[in-house]
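Re: How this chain folds, sequence and tokenised backbone to follow
How to read it: Take the token row as a discrete description of the fold.
Start of record: The labelled sequence and token lines come straight after this line.
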Amino acid sequence: MNPHEALSAAGKTLQPTVTCPPNRIGWVGFILSAVGFLGPTVFHYFHVEVFEGATCAAVLFFGFWSFPGLILSFVGLLKKPRCVACLGFVLGLFGSFFVIYVWPMLYML
């Protein structure tokens, strides 16, 4: 017996599910925010240093990706689905906070 016949015989018909299109701007914001947050974390806390001053340059290079990620994730929050954009927004906030406030204090000591 065909499963579709069994459902229609019971008086219930299955409607095809409607899927939301992916939130591409939310995904781009999430990826930029993740790079901006994880880059300084990896380079600073694991002391990855290729040469003198490389850690400082790497933290700045990766950390500044948090700002565009934060902005794109905020724009992505205006569209559904919002889950990835919300994660990108939070990571962008943490990454931006790290670059603006924490990073200068670490290297002034």
